[in-house]
Amino acid sequence: MLKKIIASVVLLSLITVAIVQAMDNKPEGHDDKDSIGGLKVGAKAPDFTLETLEGKQVSLSDYKGKKVMLNFWATWCPPCKKEMPDMEKYSNQAGEDVVILAVNIDPENDVQAFINENGITFDIPLDSQSAKRPVNELYKVMAIPTTYFIDSDGIIRNKVVKAMQLNDMVQSINTMK
User: Fold this and answer.
1) Residue 11: its pLDDT value, please?
2) Pick from 27, 102, 104, 175: CA 20 to 30 A from residue 124's CA?
């Protein structure tokens, strides 16, 4: 009788350990979020395709081999508005191996008027919340502005969750290959 009790306890313990380990092991690729929200630095940047204000289709994969500054913003966001002039300055001095994609998450507002008023010349892809899978959800954007710096191999090398200044942009791009 004692042997059956001990065997039952051991078996129950093994089952408990197996269940706990199974709950702790996330499927590969699902541990991509960090403590402040968003995708982790070091993760592969998910590809996407969006339409720009001009009606051109752009995909992240179009820029393989280039460094990408992927910014998420909205017209109603004061910190987003504050960083736009520095983003424009940076886009004019960055060079051929750097691309700025400023993904607007509120295309229902007058994005074109904002762009015209601020003299923005870099691509503005539009990401609607009504889309089946908004890109800002794919990137797990929790606050705006959020900017991902993606290296020429498509790996996220830095993430900034606040308005940036020109020197922040230059430094983040210059530290990548």
Assistant:
1) 46
2) 175
Count structural domains, the chain.
1
13 falls within a domain = no
For 101, phi then psi, to 5°, come to -120, 110
Q: What are 98-150's pLDDT values in tens digits? A: 999 999 999 888 999 999 999 999 999 999 766 678 999 999 999 999 999 99
Q: Residue 152 pLDDT > 60, yes or no?
A: yes
Residue 53 has pLDDT above 80, yes or no: yes
Per the domain annotation, does 17 fall within a domain? no
Domain that holds residue 63: 29-174
**What average pLDDT does the structure give for the chain?**
85
pLDDT of residue 48: 95
